[in-house]
Amino acid sequence: MTLTKHEKAILDVLAQEPKRSFAVEDMAHRLNISGSRNYKQLIKAVAFLERVGEIKVDKQGRFSLKQLTSTVTGVYRANNKGFGFIDLGPEQADLFVPRGQAGNAMQGDRVEAKIIREVNPITGKGSEARIERVLERSVAQMVGEFFAHNQEERQATGYIGYVKPQGDYSDAVTIWINESGLFPANHTICVVTISAYPTLSKPNELEGLVTKEVGYKDAPGVDILAILYEKGIPHEFPEDVLAEAAAVPQVIPAQDLTGRRDLRDTLVITIDGADAKDLDDAISLQQLDNGDFELGVNIADVSHYVTQNSALDREAFERGTSVYLTDRVVPMLPQRLSNGICSLNPHEDRLTLTCQMIINMKGQVVKHAIFPSVIHSSYRMTYTEVNEMIHGNEETRVKYPDLLTMVDQMVKLHEILAQKRHQRGALDFDAPEAKIEVDPEGHPLAIHLRERDVAERLIESFMLIANETVAKHYTLKELPFIYRIHEQPDVDRMNRFAEFLSTFGVILYGDTESIEPKKLQEALAKVKGSPYEQVVSTMMLRSMKQAKYSENPEGHYGLAAQDYTHFTSPIRRYPDLIVHRLIHLYFNQALSKKTFEELEVKIPEIAVHSSKMERRAVDAERETDALKKTEFMADKIGQRFTGLISSVTSFGIFVELPNTVEGLVSLQTLKDDYYQFNQQHMLLVGERTGNIYRIGQEVEIEVVAVNIAEREIDFALVSAVAIDEEEKARLQASLRLNTNRKKVDRKQKRGKEAAKGKSTRYASKPTGHASQKGRRKSTSRKKRKR
Predict the structure, then answer these.
(1) pTM of the model
(2) Helix axis angle, 517-527 to 533-542, nearest 10°
(3) Domains of the chain and CATH, by start
(4) Of 463, 483, 584, 733, which has the fewest Cβ atoms less than 10 A away?
């Protein structure tokens, strides 16, 4: 490539200051260029160098030397439409992989890719990449339905049949099954070990052998088992783990009480759901003469029984968490522990770790102690019973006379703690959660909303303050520890949320790059009680980052807490178990330099793995709920229901029913007008009628189709509650304002392009690459675990 003198001079200047960006005027001054003719040549030189990839230009028109990277690595996310994305990590934007550029990569594979088109600073279009090779396969086995070949097909192909995998794979993906494994019956759900992955010539074909038959596809319970196998969640304990659990005594030996504070004479109670069997937290409370409260949060000392590097410990680490599915629990620990000696059952001595706090009337912890203890729970209370006592049910209050004072004080302290959290800006999303009732064979009978009354909330308040107190204690000591963190929201997502809020006439105040949770709390307050309160809360939740575990005390954004950990559920969460193990370590001895260094290496590994296992569990729980919801709606075709629009997309509107079931009204079925999708405001606007469909709008729908295999429900729109004229006028004015802004932006962009000697033709910007199937799978959202 031959360069002109201007082009060479520009590159020489940029090479001398590779980290600096220049405006054209700056470069003209640096090169002593004057006169309109030379200035135009300089502009042409800059435009040419950008076109050939020697320099890059930012949104302000400033240019700098392009730091060339031959390849990038990341995780590939496939889309069933043929394109996909490469996730480069939390701090970098995803790369778009066009159709035909994915090579032989599959969903979740770690890949090496070459950037084939850089982000365009004028149009804002993202960078595109071509996958060069697969570095690491994400799966060694897959789960799906087996389709048997007949004798002629077996002889012709050499395969006994094929499996269509379930999960986030294109419908075109096929696994050819060779005869070296099991030969299952037709339509059996199977686990397949992959023996050959896709090639460039056959990007959607794999080979494998069946290693396990889960069961016939319509047999009771097989659907959920298939999800567990698909997600790689173990649901049976190895023999060595069961043997260790069996060896744990179910009565506490006297020597185990040594070094523990004896709280067996203290009034201690548990409060849980009626069907709970693993009771890992118990409460004591009394109000002192000066008005302060002495709150004891006593947590099952699981670390006493699950010792470091034991078979129980290794299995608990691998599982990371218990998984709560519709009709079953896949526990982190064997039931002999979780429902036995570790469960704080009434009228039994139990080993615990206690966080005892003195809390004043302002909700401040003025004194605390964390220590090993032994308790004897006096009552196993349910949320229902405590709520009845709180709301004045005389029969229940008479039944538990010893607890009347304690329960009244619990309510008082909870209100103080809740008010304190609110004052500092903690966010309470309180998203409705479905409880799916099933028959003995797993078929859904009804879907109810889980109730969260005062009893549920006060236990949450006590667990939150204990978690904060423990975290702060060890943060100040600067000892290796594991924390639960929730980071500042991503600025781009927060900008989109602010734009979304504006459609309801709500302004989000503050800099979105560093917005405080208090500002989001204020925005939620403005829509409280409105029909769209829940969808605004859900959209805010989707704008947040995921909470995770970390070795660094980076605080919890959603709770507006400076220090936070998970201390209160060691029966079902491995990080809590590690917190207990660390408390014992620091309580009993001085920390050696060697142990300190070992923990600094080990804790980050535990944090990363536990975060991954938590996401795996959440995925399985969502997938199971989606499955049971579609099964529940399968016999409702033709029936009509009232719901709210929960999301608006370029291909239709999602409607959520009061029981949290969600379905799609396809854009193609809206025949009364041609509807344009406004992405910024998430609206559908009719070109001729001016009709508007928006989030939070009440509609009546008819169920028209249910696809259980794909977890998809299709609705037809019957009617919609019209948006009142005043609000409609405000929305239309906002849309016109945005249209005018876009026109101004386009003129400015054309001016910049013209200055660079480029073409000024513009294509309409795509609204996004999300497929209908992918959007469906992401709409079932649960309240994230704090």
Answers:
(1) 0.81
(2) 160
(3) 5-65 (1.10.10.10), 72-136 (2.40.50.140), 141-219 (2.40.50.700), 240-480+563-607 (no CATH), 640-779 (2.40.50.140)
(4) 733
